[in-house]
Amino acid sequence: MSPSKEAAVDKANILVVDDLPEKLLVFRTVLEDLHQNLVFVRSGSEALREVLQREFAVILLDVNMPDIDGFETATLIRRYKRSAHTPIIFITAYADELQTSRGYSLGAVDYILSPVVPDILRSKVRVFVELHALQRRIAQQADERVALAASAAALQVAEESTRRSACLSDLSHALSGLLDVRAGLHKLLGMVVPQLCTQASVVLFDEQQRPHRAARRGSGDLAAVDVDPAALSERERARLAAGGEHVHLLRSGEHPLGALLIDGPPTPLGAAVLEEVANRAAIAFATAQLYQNLQDEIAERRRAEVRLEEANRRKDEFLAMLSHELRNPLSPIANAVEVIRRIGGHDPKLRWATDITDRQVRQLTRLVDELLDVARISQGKIVLQKSPVDLGVLISQCIELQRPLLAARQQSLTQALPPQPVWVLGDGARLQQVISNLLSNATKYTQNGGNLHIGLTVEQGRAMVIVRDNGMGIEPELLPRVFELFEQGQRALDRNQGGLGVGLTLVQRLVRLHGGHVEAFSAGAGRGAEFRVFLPCLQAVEDLPAADAPAAADALPRRRILLVEDNVDVADTTALMLTMSGHTVRVSRDGMAALSCVAEFAPEIVLLDIGLPLLDGYEVARRMRAMPALKRTRIVALTGYGQPADRRRGREAGFDEHVLKPVDPAALAALIDRGPLSDEEAQAADPAPESEAAPAPGQATLYSFKRP
Q: Would the pTM count as exceeding 0.85?
């Protein structure tokens, strides 16, 4: 026989089964370097015919084929004696645990994912080709006994392959869906000891590649035990550092997750599969650690939410206390202003000073209200108290409020206001906020010595207010978002404009509530800015709602009023103001004194503070409401506590009204004019919830508890 024919006889047959011609071409390119006899078919039926005709060293079998899939083809191949133990390598683009378990149960020796890695495919096929060639040489050269021994050896190899496949399949099943890292360590050691070695340890690393979790199991142990990573022996640490044949790293890509340490020589099965065991375990632990990191992040977010809720609760408590402490000094100031106004006569300077003080008190009151109404701004709960407003007068008042800051920054302000009134129907306090915010912004964002301008015109039934400056201007990228909440331009380190980024947002929303709109213009940074506010005008004088004529002082009924207040200034100024209106006033400094005098005094109205010594206002109200003699007495909470919870407690304690300090004298006079409770009010049971609408800054903050 010629050498070429002998070489052809010695070549092993390799069967490649795939329905795609392009993939067959790839396999030919990869495997032709083995110089073996490559047989290519495109269906399971063709593969069965080839198996009947010749012997193959290895079969590369595609899982997904149109007529007979890879699993069915493998089942039929295994029925023939010649191919009962022929190594089958499944080629697939996707392999889950169920699929791989089924393949290994059919005697598959391996799975190779497509697209294939040429070197890996060649090396695996070369192993089976060399094994096949060895078997053929033994069969050709040995006698019947040697041939029988070779057959037994081949059977042992097949059994080892089956055990290997079963071991890997069991490991994959045990670690599938692993979410708890500790449980995974114990499961892995349960699969490794004693099947693959006599003793083993598993160590997982943290992000700094330091051991942070470990477990160990020996052949005599009933179960794996956790090991303190700090207690690892010097020998184990040295092995981790040096690596070696008995150290199998658990890798996720190029990132080491940990290591599997084998003590002593592995079993034959262990020598074959330990590296693959480490690879599959690494995938499972990477998934478990990702899940644990996610759980930790969720837990941290929940803790952060709890902290935020606690901080929000403390913020509400702080704001409630702050508003109470701020309202207490404002109340006697407002009362004193009203007293001065009543006794001051017609002196123009005194009236001018009184008006200024009154406006500033209202401004401070408005700031306190806004401090508590930030949430209402975001939730759109602002309610307007509309009346005819002369924009020219309103702008002049805003300019006066801004004069001190203009003088401090040496800025000049020009104004162009029409001589005739410009009437709009709106909330004067809120419109003053709009104009004051725009003027304040122009002042803050204009350099010292800069120029500002404010103008008012009427065009086509609309009033237009213009506020212009030559200051820092607005960046082009910021201009479209200038009215968004908390949006601000960049600040230099030497600037102290302040602000929270809500002023322009409030301007826009208040203008929209008035049926108008606002526009912003700027030529860019350093070139100034201009804001235009458009509001619908009242068309004629007849559009003005008729004002209610004030009642004559002599026509107002005189009441017996019990004032319970521990703040001396508030008590004295309120009592003086009520006495000047002709009412009979009795003052008590604490709750016990108030309860002791009600039977003798028989008040028609009780103005009761909540924060009292000895007994708080809630308890005093409960006791008064239980007295038959006070059944028709109107009990009014006159307090600085104005949170919803405070008003709810007031209803439950028996208050009929809830008035926040400082109270508007006109509103207090109107409340007193209502007198004691009517028979229907006195006989009513539980009060209905009061309205939660936010009062406009500077308006009387009064909540009536309506009874059904």
A: no
